[in-house]
Write a structure and sequence with these properties.
Elements: H1 2-19, H2 26-40, H3 48-55, H4 59-66, H5 69-88, H6 95-112, H7 114-122, H8 132-154, H9 163-183, H10 194-209
Helix pairs in contact: 2-3, 2-7, 4-5, 5-6, 5-7, 5-8, 6-8, 6-9, 8-9, 9-10
């Protein structure tokens, strides 16, 4: 009986190892699973156990590769702001159009990367504090947006406002709009078309600074 138990236990261990994610793929699988949970279930189901189960790895693998949940969040934060920065980066001869496209890029990023946007802007996860390096990556995104505003000033917009103030106002307005959109908040039985409403928001900001 003991021999049979040992044989069964050994076979179970072999089968479990055979179906687990290979070590070299664990990082990517864990991040993919974490994003999948955030995109489809939201942050409430975001736990080490849930991520491990979806990634087909042992929970300890997440601690070994990322030092726990906060390490996963930090990597998502960094990846998110790098993609976000690309979405805000426009530099052509038409500075005004570049700023307009950057604002559209803000919303497009949020809609296409809901899980990342949640980590970056919409949820304070318990005990998670981004490192100085991660904050620097995030800071660069705002600097990219600010440079667009500064170039637009030279082209005739926002002349009576400090560039950093105008950038903060536009950033805050974009964030407020897309946050309500992501949360599905509507205040009318006949809600406005979100694309048209966002364009109206941008035009209102432009005209308001005049």
């Amino acid at each position: 009986m003991f021999l049979n138990y040992r044989t069964t236990f050994y076979n179970d261990q072999v089968n479990e190892k055979a179906t687990r994610t290979p070590s070299k793929l664990i990082g990517a699988e864990v991040l993919g699973a974490a994003l999948d949970i955030l995109n489809h279930e939201g942050p409430d189901g975001f736990t080490v156990r849930a991520i491990a189960q979806r990634a087909n790895v042992a929970p300890m693998a997440i601690y070994n590769h990322f030092e726990g949940l906060n390490g996963v969040l930090e990597e998502l934060w960094i990846q998110g702001f790098r993609i976000f920065n690309d979405a805000l980066t426009f530099h052509t001869e038409d500075a005004k159009k570049d700023l307009y496209n950057a604002a559209l890029g803000y919303r497009r990023f949020a809609l296409e990367h809901r899980g990342l946007y949640t980590v970056m802007f919409m949820r304070r996860f318990r005990y998670f504090l981004p490192s100085d390096g991660a904050i620097e990556v995030a800071y660069e995104s705002f600097q990219t947006f600010l440079r667009n505003v500064e170039r637009s000033q030279k082209a005739g917009w926002f002349k009576d406002a400090k560039a950093i103030d105008a950038a903060h106002v536009m950033w805050s307005a974009c964030h407020g709009f897309v946050s309500l959109e992501l949360l599905g908040v509507n205040f009318s039985a006949d809600p406005a078309d979100p694309d048209e409403a966002f364009q109206l928001l941008l035009l209102t900001l432009r005209d308001g600074f005049r």
